[in-house]
């Protein structure tokens, strides 16, 4: 087997693990967050990570069509994917925050930590009794940005690997979207509902998800390589 | 004409279309009650609250909008391959997607409400179906048409290498993720629970105890849409518009500053993107500090 095929296989496998890890950073409160009953963005883990990841994937694809996928272009595509994804999630979290503060009238407060590890602000007194926090405090925002960066980077890496295998941008894009969903759903099962970010105790479960994604991505990679053989 | 100028114009148009699409998408999900806040509409009859809300959680918003916009994009792409005018093809594609949307909306309302009728006494209000389906499909058509036109611009002018249906699918998933993350909070945390005092999250014990009375008479989905159009819908539109505009703008700024050198232009676009992200984080912190100072901790 050609060495370049093995490199692509390794890239796809690593990309899957990165995507899985990224989802654990994104602060999602699921359905309860839509009622300001839990901290984080009010939607599902997979859906928000996919929305951010696909914006990054489009940014990466646009960059790839400009600079090519070799040499410095490789790095630029990864960075462009990460930045595109971070812009999407950053704007979404900020606008969500505006609705929490001005539309619902709650103070952003995390439930999984006594004080915000970044700003050192106390959190518990600002949590509405009977809820597990609400809004997007700074620690969640920063965690979300890290998650978005990793998600965009993982999606871009998978796209580059698929392009290197010889797929056209159209087919590589479609496969990357499906591949992203597989790993985001695996992460979602590992999280099991809601997560506030890297300060949440559930974050410690991340290695299990990453291992699952490594296996799933390896299988996906073998199928992708088999398609071009 | 200068290609950069055309790209900037296409980007500005895309940003405007995204703003309209985001707003229409969120208001459609308020009229039809979709996504996370609909869990409360679904729960209400079990808590003794018989309601006249539309009940339409076909799936999560990203998946359902991904489907509609991808259907529109695929149909438009097929019609364009037959040699028809692209704008006409996009309109026809969005029209087909509107029929798909309508079929899912009615079947999901009937399925969900009938499922609750026997055990919890929730009636099927046929007048709600007939009066709401127009605004649902209409708002959906506006959102889908704007996004499929954006996908066309991205494909033909802004240099996106993906085919039209795939870009359409990605835009649909993104707008759904944004709509359910931003505007739905205004509907779920505020509008559905207006009878509780302003300024707090909804405790788990109150879930399902939604407000069934409107400003006048019994509340339905259109009352919610009227209310959410003041903040949730508008901010959702601004959110999607900003994402599309800022992400494209950083690339064009790079081209303008370093038109001849692709690598330098790309590096500039990444640096501009990082500056935008830093500004977003600062703005978020400012809003957080404002809320903490203005509202203070809960005293009881």
What's the SSE blueprint?
The complex is a heterodimer of chains A (229) and B (300).
Chain A: H1 3-25, H2 30-34, H3 45-67, H4 72-104, H5 138-164, H6 169-191, H7 206-228
Chain B: H1 3-31, H2 38-43, H3 61-81, H4 86-120, H5 126-156, H6 164-181, H7 183-191, H8 221-228, H9 232-257, H10 262-295
Overview of the molecule:
The complex is a heterodimer of chains A (229) and B (300). Chain A is mainly alpha-helical and 229 residues long. Helices cover 69% and strands 0% of the residues of chain A. Chain A has 7 helices and no strands. In chain A, helix 3 (45-67) packs antiparallel against helix 4 (72-104) and helix 5 packs across helix 6. The longest helix of chain A is centred in the middle third of the chain and has 33 residues, at 72-104. The termini of chain A are close together. Chain B is mostly helical. Chain B folds into 2 domains: 3-246, no CATH class; 258-294. Chain B has 10 helices and no strands. Chain B has helices spanning 3-31, 38-43, 61-81, 86-120, 126-156, 164-181, 183-191, 221-228, 232-257, 262-295. The N and C termini of chain B lie far apart (65 Å). Classes of the chains: A mainly alpha (229), B mainly alpha (300). At the A-B interface, helix 2, helix 3, helix 4, helix 5 and helix 6 of A face helix 3, helix 6, helix 7, helix 9 and helix 10 of B.
Put simply, the count of helices of chain B is 10
- Regions with little confidence, pLDDT below 50 for 5+ residues of chain A: none
Report strand % of chain B. under 5%
For the sheet with most strands of chain A, the description reads: none
Low-confidence stretches of chain B: none
The beta-strand count of chain A equals: 0
Assembly type of the chains comes to: heterodimer
How many discrete domains of chain B? 2
Q: Biggest interface between protein chains, with counts per chain? A: A-B, 80 and 86 residues
Number of domains of chain A: 1
Gyration radius of chain B, to the nearest Å? 21 Å
Largest sheet of chain B: none
Gross geometry of chain A:
elongated
- Give the integer mean of the pLDDT values of chain A: 93
Measured distance between first and last alpha carbons of chain B = 65 Å
Give the % helix of chain A. 55-70%
How much helical structure, as a percent, in the residues of chain B?
A: over 70%
Number of strands of chain B: 0
């Amino acid at each position: 087997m050609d060495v370049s095929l093995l490199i692509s296989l390794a890239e796809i496998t690593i990309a899957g693990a990165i995507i899985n890890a990224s989802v654990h950073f994104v602060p999602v409160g699921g359905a309860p967050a839509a009622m300001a009953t839990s901290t984080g963005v009010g939607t599902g883990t997979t859906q928000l990570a996919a929305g951010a990841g696909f914006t990054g994937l489009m940014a990466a694809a646009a960059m790839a069509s400009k600079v090519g996928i070799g040499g410095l272009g490789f790095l630029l595509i990864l960075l462009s994917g990460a930045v595109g994804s971070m812009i999407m999630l950053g704007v979404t979290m900020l606008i969500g925050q505006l609705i929490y503060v001005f539309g619902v009238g709650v103070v952003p407060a995390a439930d999984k930590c006594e004080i915000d590890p970044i700003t050192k602000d106390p959190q518990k007194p600002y949590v509405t009794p009977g809820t597990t926090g609400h809004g997007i405090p700074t620690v969640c925002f920063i965690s979300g940005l890290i998650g978005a960066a990793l998600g965009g980077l993982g999606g871009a890496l998978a796209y580059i690997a698929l392009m290197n295998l010889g797929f056209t941008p159209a087919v590589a894009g479609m496969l990357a979207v499906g591949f992203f969903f597989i790993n985001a759903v695996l992460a979602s099962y590992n999280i099991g509902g809601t997560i506030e970010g890297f300060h949440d105790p559930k974050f410690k479960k991340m290695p299990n998800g990453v291992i699952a994604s490594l296996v799933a991505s390896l299988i996906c990679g073998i199928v992708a390589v088999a398609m071009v053989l | 004409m200068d290609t950069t100028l055309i790209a900037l114009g296409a980007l500005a148009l895309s940003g405007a279309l995204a703003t309209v699409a985001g707003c229409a998408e969120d208001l459609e999900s308020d009229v039809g009650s979709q996504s996370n806040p609909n869990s409360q509409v679904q729960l209400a009859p079990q808590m003794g609250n018989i309601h006249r809300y539309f009940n339409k959680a076909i799936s999560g918003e990203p998946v359902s909008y991904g489907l509609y916009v991808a259907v529109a994009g695929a149909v438009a792409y097929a019609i364009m391959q037959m040699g028809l005018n692209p704008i006409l093809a996009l309109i026809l594609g969005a029209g087909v997607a509107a029929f798909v949307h309508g079929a899912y909306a009615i079947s999901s309302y009937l399925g969900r409400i009938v499922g609750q009728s026997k055990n919890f006494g929730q009636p099927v209000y046929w007048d709600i179906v007939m009066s709401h389906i127009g605004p649902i499909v209409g708002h959906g058509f506006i959102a889908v048409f704007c996004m499929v036109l954006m996908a066309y611009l991205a494909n033909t002018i802004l240099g996106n290498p993906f085919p039209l249906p795939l870009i359409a699918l990605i835009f649909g998933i993104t707008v759904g993720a944004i709509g359910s993350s931003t505007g739905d909070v205004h509907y779920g945390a505020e509008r559905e629970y207006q009878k509780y005092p302003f300024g707090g999250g909804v405790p788990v014990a109150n879930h399902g105890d939604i407000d069934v009375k409107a400003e006048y008479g019994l509340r339905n989905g259109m009352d919610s849409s009227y209310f959410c159009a003041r903040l949730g819908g508008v901010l959702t539109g601004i959110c999607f518009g900003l994402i599309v505009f800022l992400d494209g703008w950083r690339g064009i700024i790079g081209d303008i500053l370093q038109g001849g050198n692709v690598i330098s232009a790309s590096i500039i676009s990444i640096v501009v993107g990082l500056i935008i992200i830093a500004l977003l984080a600062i703005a978020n912190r400012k809003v957080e500090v404002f809320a903490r100072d203005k509202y203070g901790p809960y005293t009881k």
